[in-house]
Amino acid sequence: MHLSLLRALFCIVCWTVATTVVASATTFTMQHGLNLDIWTTWPGTERWDEEPVLANFPEWRQNTDATKLRDIRKAGFDFVRMPIDPAIFLEDASAERVTRLIAETLESVDMLHEAGLKVIVDLHSIPSDVRKVGTNQILADPHLFARYLDVVRQLGKALAATDPATTAFEPFNEPVVDCDSTLFPIWPSMLERVHAAARKSMPGHTLVLSGSCWSSAYGLAKIDPRSIADNNVIWTFHSYEPYVLTHQGADWTGDSMSYVEGLPYPPGLLGEKAFDERAAIIRKTIATKAPEDRRDELLTGFNEMVGGVTTYPMVLAMLTEPFDKAAAWGKEYAIPPQRIFLGEFGMIRQEYRKAFRMPSSWRAAYLKDMTAAAKKRGFPWSVWSWGGAFGITLDDEKRELDPVILQGLGLKVP
User: Fold this and answer.
1) E-assigned strands of 179-288?
2) Contacts (Cβ under 8 Å, ≥6 apart) of 222
3) How confident is the model at residue 184 (pLDDT cuts 50, 70, 90)?
4) To the nearest whole number, what is the mean pLDDT of the chain?
5) How crowded is residue 346: how many other Cβ atoms within 10 Å of its Cβ?
6) CA 276 to CA 306: how far, in whole Å?
7) Residues whose CB is less than 8 angstroms from the CB of residue 384 and which lie 6 or more positions away in sequence, other chains included
8) pTM of the predicted protein model
């Protein structure tokens, strides 16, 4: 009887160890990823209950099929980050719409799994002054934030039915707070609430969490991960440095970038004087075409930005600074590099409504430097994005991956 009891106890211990090992083995892992589109045609809120919108949610499904998804995998991407706009779940949303959106999200995840891709489902809020629900509103309105947490719980509960080895959940994208040097940041306590809501709904899945200030490395450095106390978390940061080179022509930034185009990467690519000559043309454009009451402000902003990237060593120093900050943070808190994730980076392809298209070779050179910085530190990454202004395809209709861009990323042409 005594031996039988010991044998039984031994079996229980063995079973416990075995299940622990299995749970550890099924933790989400990743290497090279691609961000899918969020909204590329930006349907108005009045269309959010129309069948064509709901049946193609998320919107990238409108212009794709199984072959194009498999091409992503064949190129060497092992996962995708799939943005889901929470505004459509929150703004004048009926229970029927939310139920349908969750069902379409799960169907999208299944499509990507069938293509051989792992998936991070990214609840991706967007700063917006024209909608009722954007990142700023969610973070500023306690009632709306509570409703947002309900969406996190609902979506997390649905995703809990997926395989933890192939699906992870990122419950908040780019909190736009705590960008100053305040002694009382608000994001850490909000992050704890976001984490708690997601973890309660999906106890076995990997969660992807970020710091404040647009999910920057600077914001990540303000987070003490011991307040989360969860080893099944991947920490993410985003970087588009040097911004003046990666956002050329972007007319939604509210600064001088709308007037910037043609700055090569790297700076000396077209000759010793070409970069300065291009910068001079941009200054003239701002001085003559920008609104009169903003010209001085926009010129000052452009000069400050471009002055820091006139040589390739200056560019590389700015490019690698976020990586060094994230790596130092990980070392301080014993977070292994595979759990620090460069979730977004990229260089603009072509701004909507603008004629200038960034040469693929310039973009490829930039992406090569970014992925090299990530590889050096052991960070997984996901480039922004499949389509849209930063798309890595030749166009948004045929969805053919740009071979020059793929080479820059160290991948292969399918």
Assistant:
1) 207-210, 233-238
2) 178, 185, 187, 188, 211, 212
3) confident
4) 91
5) 25
6) 9
7) 35, 344, 345, 346, 390
8) 0.92
Residue where the block lists tokens 């079973």: 15
Listed residue (387, 247, 353) closest to 306, CA to CA: 247
> Which of 3.30.240.20, 3.40.50.970, 3.50.50.60, 3.20.20.80 is the CATH number of 29-254+312-408?
3.20.20.80
3-state secondary structure of 312: helix
Q: How far apart are CA 29 and CA 163, in angstroms?
A: 12
Burial, 5: exposed, middle or buried (Cβ in 10 Å; 0-12, 13-18, 19+)?
Answer: exposed
How far apart CA 88 and CA 90 sit, in angstroms, is 6
The closest alpha carbon to 158, from 17, 312, 150, 366, belongs to 150
Q: How far apart are CA 304 and CA 96, in angstroms?
A: 50
SS3 383: strand
Q: Which of 319, 317, 313, 387 is nearest to 348 (CA)?
A: 387
Please state, in angstroms and rounded to a whole number, the distance separating the CA atoms of residues 119 and 113. 7
The pLDDT tens digits for 328-374 are 999 999 999 999 999 999 999 999 888 899 999 999 999 999 999 99
Q: Assess whether pLDDT exceeds 50 at residue 26.
A: no
* Separation of alpha carbons 384 and 374, rounded Å: 15
Question: Does the pLDDT of residue 178 top 60, yes or no?
Answer: yes
pLDDT category at 158 given cuts 50, 70, 90 is very high
At 21 the pLDDT is: 28
What is the predicted pLDDT for the residue at 284?
Answer: 97
For residue 58, whether the previous peptide bond is cis, meaning omega lies within 30 degrees of 0, is yes
- Assess whether pLDDT exceeds 60 at residue 72: yes
Domain locations along the chain: 29-254+312-408, 257-302
What confidence tier does 39 reach under pLDDT thresholds 50, 70, 90?
confident
- pLDDT on residue 204: 96
Whether 44 and 94 have beta carbons less than 8 Å apart is answered as no
Across 243-377, the runs of DSSP E, i.e. the strands, are: 340-344
